[in-house]
Each structure stands twice: as structure tokens, then as C-alpha cells.
């Protein structure tokens, strides 16, 4: 008997009560939200460290690409990028290297922004401490 016919027979019988499956909530539970009690400066410094590591990896990749480009230029005997005989692989590697340099520069800007953010947080805290020390004057009853 073909497999489709077996399924058709089981559907035609309809002896199973499926209403219990559609009404019951089997194992449904809500996701528990965990609260993170980290200071903004801690989060920003951790992100800055991660970005610095990424920048270091990008710089290593740029160095490797520079070596590969130099090797291709030496093999072809052409180092002028405008020359028609310049190797296509060297052009491709140079474009990739330039993109990686641009990415590293953008990440550097982001790190400097995060560092500025971590420097501002203590200033806000000290400012709040100064506000708490201001004496409140109560107007005299007339």
C-alpha cells in the first residue's frame, strides 16, 4: 500500500480526539527575563576591549594582504596599478586591504566614542553628588 493511502485511511477514520491537543497547553512557560546590573562604564569598557581585539585582527590581516600583494607584484614584475599587465589578484587583494583599513578606521572612531562615554559617566556621578549636597530651603510660613 503506498504511503499516501495509509495517511488518507488514518484521516478518514477520525477516531482520534484531537480537541485535547488543540486546547491543552503542553509545557508552555514564559521566558524569565534576567536583569543585568552592570554599570554603563563597565559595558562600554568591555565593548571597547572587544573592538580593540577586532582592530588588531584586522591589522594582522592587512599585513598579510600587503605581503601577498608584494608577492604577486614580484611574480608579475609589474608594480604600477595603472599598468594593464598588473595582476588581477593583486588588484583584488589591494581592494580588500583598503576595505579592511577603512573598517579599522571606523572601529577606531567607535572606540574613541566609547572611551569618551566611560569618561563622562564619573562626571555625571560626581555632578549628582554635588546636587545632593545643595541645601533645600523651606519657605517660611507667613
In short:
The protein is mainly α and 142 residues long. It has four helices and no strands.
Structural overview:
- There is one protein chain.
- With 142 residues, this protein is mainly α.
- The chain has four helices and no strands.
- The radius of gyration is 33 Å and the shape is elongated.
- The N and C termini lie far apart (101 Å).
Structural classification: mainly alpha
Rounded mean pLDDT score:
76
Number of helices: 4
Tell me, what's the shape?
Answer: elongated
Instruction: List the helices and strands in order.
Output: HHHH
Describe the sheet with the most strands: none
Radius of gyration: 33 Å
What's the β-strand tally? 0
The low-confidence runs, each spanning 5 or more residues with pLDDT under 50, are: none
Strand content: under 5%
Helical content (DSSP H or I, runs of 4+): 55-70%
Distance between the termini: 101 Å
Key traits:
mainly alpha; 142 residues
Topology of this structure?
Blueprint lengths: L2 H11 L5 H5 L16 H37 L11 H45 L10
Helix pairs in contact: 3-4
Amino acid at each position: 500500500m503506498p504511503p499516501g493511502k495509509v495517511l488518507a485511511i488514518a484521516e478518514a477514520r477520525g477516531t482520534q480526539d484531537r480537541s485535547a491537543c488543540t486546547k491543552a497547553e503542553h509545557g508552555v512557560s514564559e521566558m524569565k527575563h534576567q536583569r543585568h546590573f552592570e554599570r554603563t562604564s563597565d559595558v562600554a569598557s568591555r565593548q571597547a576591549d572587544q573592538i580593540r581585539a577586532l582592530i588588531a585582527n584586522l591589522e594582522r590581516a592587512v599585513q598579510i594582504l600587503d605581503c601577498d600583494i608584494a608577492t604577486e607584484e614580484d611574480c608579475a614584475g609589474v608594480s604600477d596599478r595603472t599598468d594593464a599587465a598588473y595582476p588581477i589578484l593583486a588588484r583584488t587583494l589591494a581592494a580588500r586591504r583598503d576595505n579592511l583599513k577603512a573598517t579599522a578606521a571606523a572601529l577606531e572612531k567607535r572606540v574613541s566614542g566609547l572611551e569618551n562615554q566611560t569618561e563622562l559617566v564619573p562626571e555625571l556621578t560626581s555632578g549628582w553628588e554635588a546636587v545632593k549636597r545643595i541645601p533645600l530651603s523651606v519657605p517660611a510660613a507667613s
